């Protein structure tokens, strides 16, 4: 944020609501029609992605819902390395390092006029999750074209996820599903589960080799 001089801080009170915060921010702008990019704090994006964002949106015609690449837990992925690589070196699109987050609809590019005309976010949804899917479905049932495709240059960075008790049952289920998918691939998780068995096998093989030498 230190590199950006032109921004407005809008203080809000009350219970946390992601949808309300984004909705207030979008409606606060009073200038000409602008292209909005709804983005979370755990997202890394490049300037190339911003160009893709512009190319796939058109006021009154189309909105953009990119599928981003979600990073697995670096501590698991690089556990066999001497150290976890720097962030820029981790942002590699491979099946071993992450997955395409095709169930997420929170990152989106759309013109403010389309956002206002469609009715914005559902402000009755509190806390985490649900408001982005609701907005996406409204666009699907509108006359606008919804562009949905995987893109490079847009990454969800891994972080520890807590699913708090205050969430509704549906929100809690969504949170736990997201948490489970974020850690590692099925194969990598399987190796963790059977790690002790694998280590025991390696020790036995090492002992056999030592016995033969003596």
From TrEMBL:
Q: Which Gene3D superfamilies match?
A: Spore Coat Polysaccharide Biosynthesis Protein SpsA, Chain A (3.90.550.10)
Protein localization: Golgi apparatus, Golgi stack membrane
Q: Which Pfam families match?
A: CHGN
Tell me which positions the record assigns to the signal sequence.
none
Entry's EC annotation: 2.4.1.-
Query: Where are the coiled-coil regions?
Result: none
- A Gene Ontology term for the protein's cellular component: Golgi cisterna membrane
Q: Which UniProt keywords apply?
A: Coiled coil, Glycoprotein, Golgi apparatus, Membrane, Metal-binding, Signal-anchor, Transferase, Transmembrane, Transmembrane helix
GO molecular function of the protein, one example?
Answer: metal ion binding
Which principal EC class is assigned to this enzyme? transferase
The Swiss-Prot or TrEMBL record describes its family as follows: Belongs to the chondroitin N-acetylgalactosaminyltransferase family.
Protein name, per record: Hexosyltransferase
Q: Which organism is it from?
A: Diceros bicornis minor (South-central black rhinoceros)
**What lineage is on file?**
Eukaryota, Metazoa, Chordata, Craniata, Vertebrata
